[in-house]
Design goal:
Layout (H helix, E strand, L loop, with lengths): L1 H19 L4 H4 L2 E7 L5 H14 L2 E7 L1 H13 L6 E5 L2 H8 L1 H4 L14 H5 L2 E2 L2 E2 L1 E2 L9 E6 H6 L8 H13 L3 E3 L17 H7 L3 H6 L9 H15 L15 H7 L2 E7 L2 H8 L8 E4 L9 E3 L4 E5 L6 H11 L2 H10 L19 H9 L6 E3 L1 H4 L7 H12 L5 H18 L8
Parallel strand pairs: 1-2, 1-3, 8-9, 11-13
Antiparallel strand pairs: 3-12, 4-5, 6-12, 7-9, 7-10
Helix pairs in contact: 3-16, 13-14, 19-20
């Protein structure tokens, strides 16, 4: 009789815990491992993870890896069958299929609630074969790469936002003549100076409609495209004209805010919300002192949109798939998404690609978006729109550095990109290359 009473009491406790959200003994044993690049997991997300544990008893164990090591560390774990329950990776539907093989390595999330509230363009970049595999809780809009410029310097020199490359070149020369370095370009990191090329995908597509599809079908090449050649020729001219300054080959991206706030540099290609980052690090420099405009190489005036970005995936080999889905549901409630926007300090979330949240972009930043809201005034960057470009990003950086120093010419860089694309496609057994 006493034993029956104990059993009944235990059942009542478990039932109450389930109804009230109290953690049960079984739930308390669950630990979800979450692996990500240091620039992908914010302090606010970690705070939410603690709230999630208080609510469910499920502990989140973050494995945060330095940016330069993340890809190597993660791939080693994935290849050994020891991937974390939840892992981060850049989205981009082609790369996810070819490089990550999400159909094998990730869980199908198609039926989850967040798929109804996430921006369709962003969701599409985590969708392969009609199935959604990733959750992108990241500031896709705020991280758009644009030219940030010092309004005070422009006003002092009576400069206006350029509409053509000729305008851009002329104002850069005026800035240089005034004793100010026109553009902060940190080449030493190996990746930043690459932005000037694939980010111009919308312009390439505008001049040659359907080019991305032709490139993906192996019916066109980079080397034969005159607009791409113009882009690289102008980039080379900017370097040889001294617009990047004398230290560009050794300049580092980590010094971006410092250099722009110093007033020694007038412009830099950086995120749309870079101004907020500068003010946070250097409060004497006010965010509204930076304006923004689109990158004008090859006379571009289109906004370069990249709907791909750091994305969370649930490992198909995880023993805690249901718990991981609970965490995804928790992160994507409107109040928790807003919490990320309002409270992230280590990573800036000016907005998130979901309905029901309110962003914090500055007026100039929002105006640039509003001015390019029509489909005819924006387009998708080529590292996302064209297959086998993103995986060779650092290699392109090496080629562009060689172009700056005279070891390669623009046409050589394009030919080198084509060769690597062909090699990657053949390795992937892409039917457009392997007949």
């Amino acid at each position: 009789m006493q034993l029956k009473k104990l059993v009944l009491i235990a059942l009542v406790v478990v039932t109450i815990a389930g109804l009230t959200g109290m953690p049960t003994h079984a739930q308390a044993k669950i630990t979800l491992t979450v692996m990500g690049d240091q620039n992908w997991i914010s302090d606010a997300e970690q705070t939410l993870a603690k709230k999630f544990e208080d609510k469910t008893g499920i502990h989140i164990d973050y494995q945060i890896v330095p940016s330069g090591q993340y890809s190597t560390v993660f791939q080693a774990k994935l290849n050994s069958g020891e991937a974390p329950d939840i892992f981060g990776n850049q989205s981009g539907k082609t790369d996810l299929a070819v490089q990550l093989n999400v159909a094998k390595n990730a869980v199908d999330l198609s039926g989850m609630a967040f798929t109804k509230t996430e921006d369709p363009l962003v969701l599409d970049q985590s969708t392969v074969g009609g199935k959604v595999y990733g959750l992108t809780v990241f500031d896709i809009v705020g991280t758009t790469w644009v030219v940030n410029y010092n309004k005070a310097i422009f006003a002092k020199l009576n400069l206006s936002v350029p509409k053509t490359y000729a305008d851009f070149k002329a104002l850069s020369q005026k800035i240089k003549d005034a004793g100010i370095t026109p553009i902060y370009e940190p080449v030493s990191d190996g990746w930043h100076h690459v932005l000037w090329f694939p980010e111009m995908g919308p312009r390439y597509e505008q001049v040659t409609p359907g080019l991305a599809d032709q490139l993906n079908a192996n019916k066109a090449t980079f080397a034969d495209n005159p607009t791409m050649l113009t882009d690289l020729t102008e980039l080379q001219e900017m370097y040889t004209s001294g617009f990047f300054g004398s230290n560009t080959l050794s300049d580092a991206f980590a010094d971006s805010a410092k250099m722009i706030s110093s007033g020694k540099y007038a412009m830099m290609v950086n995120n749309l919300d870079f101004a907020q980052t500068v003010e946070k690090k250097y409060p004497d420099f006010k965010a509204d002192n930076l304006g923004v405009f689109v990158i004008p190489l090859a006379d571009n005036q289109l906004l370069n949109v990249n709907p791909a970005g750091p994305t969370k995936f649930i490992y198909s080999g995880s023993k805690n798939i249901d718990a991981a889905k609970q965490f995804f549901d928790f992160l994507t409630t409107p109040e928790n998404l807003q919490f990320l926007i309002d409270n992230s300090t280590t990573i800036h979330f000016q907005t998130l690609p979901f309905t029901g949240v309110k962003g914090t972009l500055l007026p100039d930043q929002q105006k640039l978006l509003d001015d390019h809201s029509a489909t005819t005034t924006r387009g998708v960057v080529y590292q996302t729109a064209v297959n086998y470009v993103n995986p060779q990003w650092m290699d392109i950086g090496t080629d562009l550095t060689a172009m700056f120093t005279g070891a390669m010419q623009p046409k050589d860089v394009l030919a080198s990109i084509d060769k690597r694309r062909a090699d990657l496609a053949k390795t992937a057994k892409d039917p457009a290359w392997v007949k």
